[in-house]
Amino acid sequence: MSVSFNSVCMATYNGERFIIEQLRSILKQISQEDELVISDDGSTDQTISLIESFNDPRIRLFTGNSFRDPIKNFQYALQQCRGDIIFLSDQDDVWMDHKYSTLLLQLKNYDLVISDSQIVDEQLNILHPSFFNYFKSGKGIVKNMIKSSYYGSCMAFSRKVLVSSLPFPDTKEIGHDLWIGLVAELKYSVLFYKEPLVKYRRHNNAFTPETVGKSKRKISQMIYGRIIMCKEVVKFLIKNLK
């Protein structure tokens, strides 16, 4: 008889500044049967040695990758996950103490749950108490294609959502988290849970901009990106209607 367990999925790259704090916040919450899957994309700092210093059997660390692309790195990490429920995690945030148990409870009724978060600075001082309010987050295919509020650091979902989402579209125009969110809305059930469960840290080296929600892309680039998204959504719908 197989034992049920869950996966936390993290993609790392040169995350030595904050990764210790994040790993501690995760490992103290998940069960002894769970796994923390980490794919490193060729870090040149002490990220790998810091992860290994935990010497925790729940950590499954994959090194030697050279994607140079966080989307492909996350895809690889997700492909290694074996759990029934998958939590996405950034390398530089901090989970609040009841994040894991709260999302598991909500996932009994929904296939994907995304929680609110506090936007904080490097020292975890609160910049904005609610990401949802600041960013006007919520469901909606068109809404999120125009401006995504699916941030992976706050998401957890069932294995069937993961299976339906992989492989990701081969484009940089759709983030891994946005794609998973869109697939969940198109095919399953989604909840935007209005309690902050993550300290979402903003700093100069973060993958997403320090000025949350403010794009520096040209209008023409943004229009091109939306066209690509529309094509991928239509392809997904056609495939799933067959």
What labels would you give this structure?
about 35% helix, about 240 residues, Spore Coat Polysaccharide Biosynthesis Protein SpsA, Chain A, nine-stranded mixed sheet, alpha/beta, about 20% strand, single chain
Major sheet, described briefly?
9 strands, mixed
CATH superfamily: Spore Coat Polysaccharide Biosynthesis Protein SpsA, Chain A
> Helix/strand-derived class?
alpha/beta
Characterize the overall form. Answer: globular
The pLDDT mean sits at: 93
CA-based gyration radius? 17 Å
The CATH class, by name, is: Alpha Beta
> Remind me, CATH topology?
Spore Coat Polysaccharide Biosynthesis Protein SpsA, Chain A
Beta-strand content estimate: 15-25%
> From the coordinates shown, what is the CATH architecture?
Alpha-Beta Complex
| Element-level helix/strand string | EHEHEHEEHEEHHEHHEH
Q: Give unreliable regions as ranges.
A: none
Give the number of helices.
Answer: 9
Counting structural domains, the number is: 1
Percent range for helical residues?
25-40%
Measure the end-to-end span. Answer: 34 Å
Number of strands: 9
